Amino acid sequence: MPELTAKRLQQVLERIANAEKIAAQPAGYVKLLAVSKKQPVEKIRAAFTAGQSAFAESYVQEALEKQSQLHDIPIEWHFIGNIQSNKAKLIAKHFDWVQSVSSIGIAQLLDKHRESLPPLNVCIEVNIDDEPSKSGATSENIQILANEIAKLPHLKLRGLMAIPMRTTDPKAQRITFEKITCLFHTLIAKGFALDTLSMGMSGDLDAAIFAGSNMVRVGTAIFGERK
Ligand SMILES: *Cc1c(COP(=O)(O)O)cnc(C)c1O
Q: Who lines ligand 1 at CB under 6 A?
């Protein structure tokens, strides 16, 4: 049903446009990343045909299979999943962006395997609620990690990515997003040339945009429930 994907994509773009207005940001300020993990390639193709060009995946093998089936269309691929060190080489070679960098060791591996290719765009994943069960750098470690990434010639540090604790309470969502925005601006004030604040998903993209996000990662609202 390519029409359904196109329609839902349109609805998400309208939600973004509306949030941009309320946040007093110019139209097009927020970039939409379509999260296609656990979704079939037909839906990716449908979204691409409807104008979406940036897609995000969380599982390396799944992503590589899809990339080979979709090699005929110029997709910008983002990796947003957990990075195991034995997969760092594949990730470095097959993605344009990696948003889930949370340790110096992984950053160094990505850098090593990116040699001879254009620099890899990376974001530091922030564990904003300091949840022990979750990946991501803690607020205190972000600056150290940013300093180390800045030294790596084949990585280009673009910003921060965060997945806050799941809540439907808009006030709690807002407070967390504002904390992340604050960290982002602190890094910029320290001299890091960052341009990407990746936060907001299907359920909370509006709150994220009000708080300053300029990249939202949306799966379910575009493609429906995952398998
Ligand atoms: C799955 C995923 C998303 C998309 O979530 P939805 O609620 O389906 O929009 C966004 N970001 C990350 C890191 C994810 O793993």
A: 35, 37, 58, 80, 163, 201-203, 217-221
Distinct helix (H) and strand (E) counts, the chain: 9, 8
Q: Which residues of 78-92 are buried (b: 16+ CB within 10 A; e: fewer)?
A: bbbbbbeeebbeebb
What tens digit of pLDDT does each residue of 181-226 get?
A: 999 999 999 999 999 999 999 999 999 999 999 999 999 999 999 9
Ligand 1 centroid distance, CA of 116 (Å)? 31
Distance CA 11, CA 8 (A): 5
Within 13 Å of residue 22, how many CA atoms lie on the same side as its CB? 15
Note the pTM of the prediction, 2 decimals: 0.96
| Calpha distance 53→48 (Å, rounded) | 6
H/E stretch holding 34 reads strand 31-35
DSSP 96: S
Q: What is the residue whose two structure tokens read 């910029």?
A: 188
Closest among 48, 127, 63 to 96, alpha carbons compared: 63
CB distance 103 to 137 below 8 Å: yes
